[in-house]
Write a structure and sequence with these properties.
- The strands form two sheets. A six-stranded antiparallel β-barrel has the order 1-2-5-4-3-6. A six-stranded antiparallel β-barrel has the order 7-8-11-10-9-12.
- The chain has about 220 residues and is an alpha+beta fold.
- The chain folds into two domains: about 80 residues, Elongation Factor Tu (Ef-tu), domain 3; about 90 residues, Beta Barrel (Elongation Factor Tu (Ef-tu), domain 3), CATH 2.40.30.20.
- It is built from five helices and twelve strands.
Length: about 220
Amino acid sequence: MFTGIVQGTAKVVEIEIADAGRLVIGFSDASSSVRIGDSVAINGVCLTAVKNEGDKVSFDVMGETLRRTNLGDLKRNSLVNYELSLKPTDRLSGHFVTGHIDETGRIERIEKTAAQTDFYITCSEKLLEEIVERGSVALDGISLTVAEVLKNGFRVAIIPHTLEVTNLKTRKTGERVNIETDIIAKYVRNFLTRIKPEEDEKKPRITEDFLKEQGFL
Protein backbone atom coordinates (compact mmCIF):
# COMPACT_ATOMS: atom_id res chain seq x y z
CA MET A 1 0.00 0.00 0.00
CA PHE A 2 1.16 3.51 -0.84
CA THR A 3 0.02 7.11 -0.37
CA GLY A 4 0.74 8.70 -3.73
CA ILE A 5 3.26 11.08 -2.18
CA VAL A 6 6.27 10.13 -4.28
CA GLN A 7 9.59 10.23 -2.48
CA GLY A 8 11.59 11.22 -5.51
CA THR A 9 12.54 10.45 -9.07
CA ALA A 10 15.17 8.09 -10.41
CA LYS A 11 16.55 7.10 -13.80
CA VAL A 12 16.20 3.79 -15.59
CA VAL A 13 19.59 2.08 -15.79
CA GLU A 14 18.44 -0.98 -17.70
CA ILE A 15 15.18 -2.46 -18.95
CA GLU A 16 14.53 -5.85 -20.51
CA ILE A 17 11.22 -6.22 -22.33
CA ALA A 18 10.21 -9.89 -22.17
CA ASP A 19 7.66 -12.23 -20.60
CA ALA A 20 10.06 -12.35 -17.67
CA GLY A 21 11.34 -8.79 -17.88
CA ARG A 22 13.76 -6.89 -15.68
CA LEU A 23 13.81 -3.23 -14.67
CA VAL A 24 16.88 -1.70 -13.03
CA ILE A 25 16.52 1.71 -11.40
CA GLY A 26 19.39 3.92 -10.30
CA PHE A 27 18.74 5.14 -6.76
CA SER A 28 20.74 7.45 -4.52
CA ASP A 29 19.65 7.85 -0.88
CA ALA A 30 16.56 5.59 -1.07
CA SER A 31 18.46 2.44 -2.03
CA SER A 32 19.67 1.97 1.56
CA SER A 33 16.02 1.67 2.66
CA VAL A 34 15.11 -0.97 0.06
CA ARG A 35 15.48 -4.59 1.12
CA ILE A 36 15.09 -7.68 -1.03
CA GLY A 37 11.39 -8.51 -1.16
CA ASP A 38 10.23 -4.96 -0.43
CA SER A 39 7.41 -3.42 -2.45
CA VAL A 40 8.27 -0.22 -4.28
CA ALA A 41 5.95 1.78 -6.53
CA ILE A 42 7.62 2.70 -9.81
CA ASN A 43 5.43 5.12 -11.78
CA GLY A 44 2.62 3.87 -9.55
CA VAL A 45 3.19 0.18 -10.34
CA CYS A 46 3.82 -2.02 -7.29
CA LEU A 47 7.02 -4.00 -7.93
CA THR A 48 9.13 -6.31 -5.76
CA ALA A 49 12.82 -5.56 -5.26
CA VAL A 50 14.91 -8.63 -6.16
CA LYS A 51 18.43 -7.17 -6.01
CA ASN A 52 20.06 -4.17 -4.33
CA GLU A 53 23.52 -3.16 -5.48
CA GLY A 54 23.72 0.05 -3.49
CA ASP A 55 23.38 2.57 -6.29
CA LYS A 56 20.76 0.60 -8.21
CA VAL A 57 17.85 -1.72 -7.45
CA SER A 58 16.48 -4.45 -9.74
CA PHE A 59 12.85 -5.51 -10.14
CA ASP A 60 11.35 -8.46 -11.99
CA VAL A 61 8.51 -7.31 -14.24
CA MET A 62 6.03 -9.61 -15.97
CA GLY A 63 5.44 -9.08 -19.67
CA GLU A 64 1.76 -8.43 -18.94
CA THR A 65 2.71 -5.57 -16.62
CA LEU A 66 5.01 -4.07 -19.23
CA ARG A 67 2.23 -4.19 -21.82
CA ARG A 68 -0.56 -2.87 -19.62
CA THR A 69 1.38 0.01 -18.06
CA ASN A 70 3.78 2.65 -19.31
CA LEU A 71 6.71 0.71 -17.87
CA GLY A 72 6.92 -0.88 -21.30
CA ASP A 73 7.50 2.57 -22.81
CA LEU A 74 10.56 3.24 -20.65
CA LYS A 75 14.05 3.52 -22.05
CA ARG A 76 17.49 3.93 -20.55
CA ASN A 77 17.67 7.25 -18.64
CA SER A 78 13.87 7.63 -18.54
CA LEU A 79 12.81 9.43 -15.36
CA VAL A 80 10.41 7.52 -13.08
CA ASN A 81 8.63 8.30 -9.82
CA TYR A 82 9.27 6.04 -6.86
CA GLU A 83 7.62 5.53 -3.48
CA LEU A 84 8.49 3.01 -0.77
CA SER A 85 5.58 1.09 0.73
CA LEU A 86 3.54 2.62 3.54
CA LYS A 87 4.41 1.82 7.16
CA PRO A 88 1.76 1.80 9.94
CA THR A 89 3.44 4.82 11.56
CA ASP A 90 3.63 6.90 8.36
CA ARG A 91 1.46 9.95 7.78
CA LEU A 92 -1.19 9.50 5.09
CA SER A 93 -0.63 12.77 3.26
CA GLY A 94 -2.17 11.65 -0.04
CA HIS A 95 -4.74 8.87 -0.40
CA PHE A 96 -4.65 5.06 -0.36
CA VAL A 97 -2.90 3.81 -3.51
CA THR A 98 -2.60 0.06 -4.12
CA GLY A 99 -0.07 0.08 -6.95
CA HIS A 100 -2.45 -1.83 -9.23
CA ILE A 101 -2.91 0.19 -12.41
CA ASP A 102 -6.42 0.31 -13.90
CA GLU A 103 -5.37 1.44 -17.35
CA THR A 104 -3.13 3.89 -19.15
CA GLY A 105 -4.40 7.24 -20.35
CA ARG A 106 -2.79 9.69 -22.74
CA ILE A 107 -1.72 13.26 -22.20
CA GLU A 108 -3.96 15.13 -24.63
CA ARG A 109 -2.49 18.54 -23.90
CA ILE A 110 -0.54 20.52 -21.32
CA GLU A 111 -1.33 24.13 -20.42
CA LYS A 112 1.11 26.04 -18.24
CA THR A 113 0.57 29.28 -16.31
CA ALA A 114 2.56 30.98 -13.56
CA ALA A 115 0.36 29.40 -10.88
CA GLN A 116 -0.14 25.86 -12.19
CA THR A 117 0.24 23.39 -15.02
CA ASP A 118 -2.91 21.70 -16.30
CA PHE A 119 -2.67 18.17 -17.69
CA TYR A 120 -5.60 16.98 -19.82
CA ILE A 121 -5.78 13.17 -19.71
CA THR A 122 -7.89 10.99 -21.98
CA CYS A 123 -9.19 7.65 -20.69
CA SER A 124 -11.93 5.10 -21.31
CA GLU A 125 -15.59 5.78 -20.62
CA LYS A 126 -15.62 2.89 -18.14
CA LEU A 127 -12.80 4.40 -16.09
CA LEU A 128 -14.54 7.79 -16.03
CA GLU A 129 -17.30 6.18 -13.96
CA GLU A 130 -14.80 5.98 -11.09
CA ILE A 131 -13.50 9.55 -11.44
CA VAL A 132 -15.26 12.50 -9.81
CA GLU A 133 -14.51 16.20 -9.60
CA ARG A 134 -12.44 17.05 -6.49
CA GLY A 135 -11.88 13.32 -5.96
CA SER A 136 -8.51 11.58 -5.85
CA VAL A 137 -6.68 9.88 -8.70
CA ALA A 138 -3.12 8.58 -9.01
CA LEU A 139 -1.16 9.42 -12.18
CA ASP A 140 2.18 7.63 -12.47
CA GLY A 141 1.86 7.04 -8.72
CA ILE A 142 1.24 10.71 -7.84
CA SER A 143 -1.78 11.45 -5.64
CA LEU A 144 -3.69 14.24 -7.40
CA THR A 145 -7.06 15.96 -7.15
CA VAL A 146 -9.34 15.86 -10.18
CA ALA A 147 -9.96 19.47 -11.19
CA GLU A 148 -12.50 18.73 -13.90
CA VAL A 149 -14.22 15.72 -15.47
CA LEU A 150 -14.53 16.00 -19.24
CA LYS A 151 -16.36 14.04 -21.95
CA ASN A 152 -13.43 11.79 -22.81
CA GLY A 153 -11.16 12.24 -19.80
CA PHE A 154 -10.29 14.63 -17.03
CA ARG A 155 -8.04 17.53 -16.03
CA VAL A 156 -5.63 17.77 -13.12
CA ALA A 157 -3.96 20.99 -11.97
CA ILE A 158 -0.34 20.58 -10.88
CA ILE A 159 1.29 23.06 -8.51
CA PRO A 160 4.91 24.09 -9.23
CA HIS A 161 6.32 22.01 -6.34
CA THR A 162 4.71 18.77 -7.56
CA LEU A 163 5.85 19.48 -11.10
CA GLU A 164 9.43 19.97 -9.93
CA VAL A 165 9.77 16.89 -7.69
CA THR A 166 8.06 14.36 -10.01
CA ASN A 167 8.55 13.11 -13.55
CA LEU A 168 5.68 15.31 -14.74
CA LYS A 169 8.22 17.98 -15.62
CA THR A 170 9.52 15.71 -18.39
CA ARG A 171 6.18 14.45 -19.71
CA LYS A 172 4.99 15.39 -23.21
CA THR A 173 1.73 15.44 -25.13
CA GLY A 174 0.79 12.02 -26.51
CA GLU A 175 2.67 10.02 -23.87
CA ARG A 176 0.96 7.35 -21.79
CA VAL A 177 0.39 7.76 -18.06
CA ASN A 178 -0.55 5.07 -15.54
CA ILE A 179 -3.95 5.67 -13.95
CA GLU A 180 -5.23 4.22 -10.69
CA THR A 181 -8.62 5.42 -9.49
CA ASP A 182 -9.56 5.85 -5.85
CA ILE A 183 -10.17 2.47 -4.20
CA ILE A 184 -13.30 3.85 -2.48
CA ALA A 185 -14.76 4.74 -5.89
CA LYS A 186 -14.14 1.14 -7.01
CA TYR A 187 -16.10 -0.30 -4.08
CA VAL A 188 -18.98 2.16 -4.55
CA ARG A 189 -19.21 1.37 -8.26
CA ASN A 190 -19.09 -2.38 -7.60
CA PHE A 191 -21.81 -2.05 -4.95
CA LEU A 192 -24.11 -0.04 -7.21
CA THR A 193 -23.73 -2.45 -10.15
CA ARG A 194 -24.83 -5.34 -7.92
CA ILE A 195 -28.11 -3.71 -6.90
CA LYS A 196 -30.99 -5.83 -8.20
CA PRO A 197 -33.27 -3.95 -10.61
CA GLU A 198 -36.78 -3.17 -9.39
CA GLU A 199 -39.71 -4.99 -10.95
CA ASP A 200 -40.97 -1.59 -12.04
CA GLU A 201 -38.05 0.12 -13.78
CA LYS A 202 -39.71 3.51 -13.23
CA LYS A 203 -39.22 3.21 -9.49
CA PRO A 204 -35.96 4.57 -8.03
CA ARG A 205 -33.50 1.80 -7.21
CA ILE A 206 -32.18 3.54 -4.13
CA THR A 207 -35.08 4.31 -1.80
CA GLU A 208 -35.39 5.15 1.88
CA ASP A 209 -36.43 1.55 2.59
CA PHE A 210 -33.41 0.24 0.68
CA LEU A 211 -31.05 2.47 2.67
CA LYS A 212 -32.62 1.25 5.94
CA GLU A 213 -32.23 -2.39 4.87
CA GLN A 214 -28.55 -1.81 4.10
CA GLY A 215 -27.93 -0.13 7.46
CA PHE A 216 -27.35 3.41 6.16
CA LEU A 217 -30.36 4.85 8.07
